[in-house]
Amino acid sequence: MTNTFRRRLTVVGAATLLVTLTACSTGASSSNASSSSGSAAACDLSKVNAALDKYSGIPEYKDPGPAFDISKAKGKTIFNIQESSANPFTQALTAAMTTAAEKVGIKVVDYPNQGDHTQWIQGMNAAIAQKPDAITLTGGTISPNYFKPQATAAREAGIPIITVVNEDLTQPQGPDVTARVAQPYTQAARLSADYAIKDTGCSADVLVLTSKEVIGSPASIDALTDEFKTQCPQCKLTFQNVSVPDWSTQITGIVRTAIQADPKLNYVVPLYDSMSQFVVPGIQLAGATGRVHISTFNGTPFVLKMMQDADVVRMDVGENPAQVGYAVVDQVGRILTGAGPIASGDEGIPLRVFTRTNVNEAGTPAELGKGYGDAYTAGYLKLWGLTA
């Protein structure tokens, strides 16, 4: 996510945003700030423990689709537009894509930008002028919805568009998109909920921080809400939306105010773990260190290091950006060789639950792409016909 920030929010202003609603409110996941809680009911920890255990080990690689000869795509070019070149996560995805593409003789050209929508339009115009063999749109906020005329022009010029981790597998594909590498946002959200339920012994009182311009956020919010409703109806949720450009100026005050307003609040669940760098100061300023903890999603190395260094971030659902890079090349290769893309966009991107018990497997300090095994590298090369 981009860290270009402008506006400031006072603690008093943040307090006005935290509005309490009941669990049955139909606006719980659509308002800027809302909360939900259910009537007391049985909470079966065996189910949440089973889900967390399932994702705690090194994930297995599985072929995402039928084998094909990717050598036919040698010499082709991918034009890549990140949601923001300042975003460490999309930088990592681009680097991984470039590494995988080099193995098969495909060139990646990355278009620099700072996340402004007009820059995305400029990037699309530049791509159409350069006539690459494919365009990739990389990140959670970038979509042809923001530049429909350019996306249509690319399609009419015969240039396929592939979106990268901007949608959940349950969401529809964007307009004029040939294929996608979708992301299991909903499963990650359920696991974030499960850990808070487990760690509090079915007594979670949670502030959920959302950013609805991230395309997968609505699916994540629905999944997280459903998981709490199903597994721990007596747990309490409060939702607060913070736009990505406002993370650094608003999150700390919102967290501090929420804790002060609700002394029983014991968990903060940022949908995206880069928000944690602003959550932790809010917990500290509220004097709640050791009482309020974090479970989140992405497995960004600096957040995993926060887990290693202190007991605030207790769980982070990681995804392997290196494998995402191979997945993108797989989809592009299928298109450029005529094999046909994986229609669902499900490349089997694995998730891994990192806690203090296994986080050192991600490196000490944590490293990008470490802690997921490396079976996917040999797996993709074999799938592409490059090795026996």
Could you give a quick summary of the protein structure above?
The chain is of the alpha/beta class and 388 residues long. It contains twelve helices and twelve strands.
Radius of gyration: 21 Å
The description of the largest β-sheet is: 7 strands, mixed
Structural class label: alpha/beta
CATH superfamily of the domain at 11-57 and 186-319: Response regulator
Distance between the termini: 39 Å
Total helices: the number is 12
What are the segments in which pLDDT stays under 50 over at least 5 consecutive residues? 1-40
* Major β-sheet strand ordering: 1-8-7-9-10-11-12
Write down the CATH class of the domain at 11-57 and 186-319.
Alpha Beta
Strand content: 15-25%
Share of helix among residues?
25-40%
Mean pLDDT: 90
Shape annotation: globular
The overall strand count is 12
Topology as H/E string?
HEHEHEHEHEEHEHEHEHEHEHEH
List keywords for this structure.
388 residues, 7-stranded mixed β-sheet, 12 helices, globular, disordered N terminus
Describe the structure.
This protein is α/β, with parallel strands linked by helices and 388 residues long. The chain has a domain of 181 residues: Rossmann fold, CATH 3.40.50. It has twelve helices and twelve strands. The protein has a seven-stranded mixed beta sheet, sandwiched between helices. A five-stranded parallel beta sheet has the order 3-2-4-5-6, with helices on both faces. α3 crosses α11, α6 packs parallel to α7 and α8 runs parallel beside α9. The longest helix is centred in the first third of the chain and has 16 residues. The radius of gyration is 21 Å and the shape is globular.
